[in-house]
Amino acid sequence: MIDKLCKKIKKLQAPIVVGLDPMLDYIPPHLIEKSFNEYGETLLGASEAVWQYNKQIVDAIYDLIPAVKPQIAMYEQLGIEGLKVYKRTVDYCKEKDLTVIGDVKRGDIGSTSAAYATAHLGRITVGSKEYSLFDEDFATVNPYLGSDGIKPFIDVCKKEGKGLFILVKTSNPSSGEFQDQEIDGKPLYELVGEKVAQWGEEHMGENYSYIGAVVGATYPQMGKVLRNIMPKSFILVPGYGAQGGKGADLVHYFNKDGLGAIVNSSRGIIAAYKQDKYVKFGAENFADASREAVKDMIKDIDNALKTAL
To answer: What pTM was computed for the model?
Structure first.
């Protein structure tokens, strides 16, 4: 799967991933009204609006991008109906030949970690049959319980040809409360990065490991250090756009081959129609605004890489 992702990024010249993180206040009123008229002001009605929103955005951008990253919490908040839409979204994106990064941030140990890995990346045996469940291509994982929490995921990934993005240095302002604390003269995030590189050696693709890292766009100098620590790990970079990251900030996350990183934008793409730059499209044409925002993001990153690499 990492090889497929690399090839798609090179083909499209688009090292980006769109975060499908729908909040109800992102969804245009006409979609909400239609769903409520059909299903009432219910969790089913809200979930149907989310599905229609996701589908129209994916239809508008799938030919421009290699991957999407649905954040499961945005679906879980709508209960079982929301989780059904999460699964429906994953399946639809895979039909469009998009790599799906399940932003699930699981982190536990032993049999619990193995169960999470089975649910998101593996298969479960029920009697004489096997079932794939959420069936994402990659999952995000929290490493702060140590190897006991990561090994079960790697085992499933090896079996299924899938991968992980492990939280190393996150983009939120308070991440430094723990991640920046020094141990033997090194910040904790560097030690985690070293471990990711070590885990990555166990599950390699042609040029990059299936075991990647999450490093926020809001800390570019730390990204430069971590790129050197994890030369064969793909870096998932959140924090572009709405959180302040720009293409020029991100060049250090990439290797000289122009690969090695994939940059995420969520509300900056899916709610683009709410931004002054794209307000001309209007709420009715929200998906067209998303497509234009994707094109602008690709251009921004491409210009930065051409200048730097």
So the answer is: 0.95
Tell me which amino acid residue 202 is. Answer: E
Residues 229 and 194 sit within 8 Å (Cβ to Cβ): yes
Give the contacts of 86 (CB within 8 A, at least 6 positions apart): 70, 72, 75, 76, 134
Cα angle for residues 5, 11, 14 (degrees, 5° grid): 75
pLDDT at 245: 63
Tens digits of residue pLDDT in 60-93 = 999 999 999 999 999 999 999 999 999 999 999 9
**Residue extents of the structural domains in the chain:** 2-308
How far apart CA 4 and CA 108 sit, in angstroms, is: 29
Q: How many whole angstroms separate alpha carbon 177 and alpha carbon 135?
A: 34
SS3 category, 126: strand
Query: How distant, in Å, are the alpha carbons of 86, 127, 251 from that of 244?
Result: 27, 50, 15
Q: What residues are labeled active site?
A: 105
Options 3.40.50.300, 1.10.630.10, 3.50.50.60, 3.20.20.70; CATH for 2-308 is 3.20.20.70
Please report, for residues 85, 167, 274, the alpha-carbon distance to residue 54 in angstroms, rounded to integers and kept in the order given. 9, 26, 16
